[in-house]
Amino acid sequence: MTDTPLLHVDMDAFYASVALRERPDLVDEPVVVGGSGRGVVLAANYVARRYGIRSALPMARVRRLCPHVVVLPPDYDTFTTVSASVMETFREVTPLVEAMSLDEAFLDVRGSVRRLGPPEQIAEQLRSRIHDEQGITCSVGVAWSVSVAKVASRRAKPDGVVVVRPAEVTTFLHPLDVGELYGVGEKTRTLLHRASYVTVGDLAHTPVPTLQRAFGRHLGAHLHQLAWGTDRTELVPQAGPHEPERSMGADETFARDTADREAIVRELLRLSARVGGRMRAAGVVGRTVTLKVRFSDFTTITRSHTLPEATDVTVEVHRAVTRLYDALGLRRERLRLVGVRVEGLVPRTAVQRQLVLGEPEHGWEEADRAVDRATRRFGSAAVRPASLVRGRGRTNESEIFPGRLP
DNA sequence: TCTGGGGTCCTAGGACCC
DNA sequence: TCTGGGGTCCTAGGACCC
């Protein structure tokens, strides 16, 4: 408890590094992995970064910064496979692995020191194993709290290790800009700077009540902990039957902004089907359905509705978001994006679905199950609601599963 | 052709209940 | 007659992470 060395392992430019394994001829060229059209950069190799290219930059700006940049499409199947192997390597070091995403994880190595040596030695072992086995590099932060390990790995990039022992925390952290802290983003950084908190040391030497008055009870206390590296040390490993996710959602940006209700309702159906399918695959149901709408000017609103009973039924989710959409009363406003999310998820086994004799509603569950079976056999492209197959035309529930009317 | 898609957590107000 | 206070649920928005 008092001595829990943590490793934060972070792949360097993960998607780009994996993509470049297939294209070694491009390693010295500026390369980004990203979508086409209205997409953004998912990863940029270090050559591209010399042009100022960063993750999340719009592709249009990337081409302006570096006209000869090579753009590779993301291959999520390969990313997922490589990630699984890397995580497996982590678990050979310690079972206490908290995966943060495909390309990064925290490792609690307190139980591994006896077997494998001090934390920095474990870090180097991991780095050479991943390099040899996967052909990609990673960086490791070694520290005694989550946020310090995270900041350390960032400063170790690329292809390095940074160790911050407990006695070194203040020397390491306090000169840094507040924006370097894990959990302080652009907005909070600006807020802090405007209030004359520029370095981490500035925060550290301010009493907690003062910070709480200025930034809220929770954020104020949290900032103080971050500034002293006294945030959490216990990891949450995802081993075994982990608790279900709290929400599942899907959203999509239109290729072109649209105000056409038919197109929007059709898109909501696609998204509802995607979310419903994932919920059923995970065995969860949820009661709160949320619609997300982003307008042309990028302002974004959400509207949610809590159903009397939890559901995983595509048609019920779709009906709820369509009602929320219609209640907005939009006329000419063009939409850039719509999204569907279901929150408050619980295992399906935990809720007793109300059985109402003669209620037609529940026939949709069978229809969903049929779709799920077909999807498993033939792939998602093969099975879709009828109103999505026809390019245009009316969209109503009776069209969605022709021949399977309850 | 500026700005993706998947999440988590926090805040704050109002309803409602005790 | 100046009128409390806590807990929970619902809704909307916002910040942050990768």
Automatic annotation (TrEMBL):
Reactions catalysed according to its record: DNA(n) + a 2'-deoxyribonucleoside 5'-triphosphate = DNA(n+1) + diphosphate
Transmembrane segments: none
Pfam families named in the record: IMS (PF00817), IMS_C (PF11799), IMS_HHH_1 (PF21999)
Domain UmuC: 6-185
EC number: 2.7.7.7
Residues noted as binding Mg(2+) in the record, renumbered to the chain: D10, D103
Keywords: Cytoplasm, DNA damage, DNA repair, DNA replication, DNA-binding, DNA-directed DNA polymerase, Magnesium, Metal-binding, Mutator protein, Nucleotidyltransferase, Transferase
Cofactor descriptive note: Binds 2 magnesium ions per subunit.
Protein name (database record): DNA polymerase IV
Organism: Nocardioides zeicaulis
Gene (UniProt): dinB
